Amino acid sequence: SKWYQRRVRDTNYFINTNLRALMAEAIDMVLEGLFNSLDADKSGFIDSKELVVLVEKMAPGPSTDMALRVAKDYVQFQDEDCDGKLSVEEFKRLMVEDML
After folding, report:
1. pLDDT tens digits along 16-75
2. Which sign does the torsion angle of CA 18, 24, 28, 31 carry?
3. What is the DSSP secondary structure assignment for residue 41, as one 8-state letter?
4. Count of alpha carbons within 13 Å of 79, Cβ hemisphere only?
5. Nearest by Cα to 49 from 86, 80, 82
6. Which residues pair with 24 in a beta bridge?
């Protein structure tokens, strides 16, 4: 019946909407945890020397100097306030837009 079809459609919409929200929240939590683990000095920011750890894990093989250059490029590219470091929001944007 049409009532049943509408009910199934509405239920699917509800499930899909909530699932997307839960996935976004889970990704956000994972990225915040990763940010905190990289923030070695617990300053609330990540600089290129801290980000190099992630770069080396994501692309093993290049020299540390090369990984540091890549990390500096990432920081420079995503650093909206030009302070030479990434806030948690800048880091999340980097991970979602540029690395994932």
Report:
1. 788 888 888 999 999 999 999 999 999 999 999 999 999 998 887 778 889 999 999 999
2. positive
3. T
4. 16
5. 86
6. none
Side-chain-side CA neighbours of 30 within 13 Å: the count stands at: 9
SS3 label, residue 84: coil
Helix (H, G, I), strand (E, B) or coil at 34: helix
Kindly tell me the number of DSSP H helices and DSSP E strands found in the chain: 4, 0
Look up residue 33 and give its amino acid.
Answer: G
Long-range pairs of 37-45 with CB within 8 A, sequence gap ≥ 24: 43/85, 44/87, 44/88, 45/83, 45/85, 45/86, 45/87
Q: What are 46's strand-pairing partners? A: 86
Query: What amino acid occupies position 76?
Result: Q
Whether 38 and 92 have beta carbons less than 8 Å apart is answered as: no
Residue owning tokens 């302070």? 83
Report how far residue 12's alpha carbon sits from residue 31's, in angstroms, rounded to the nearest whole number.
28
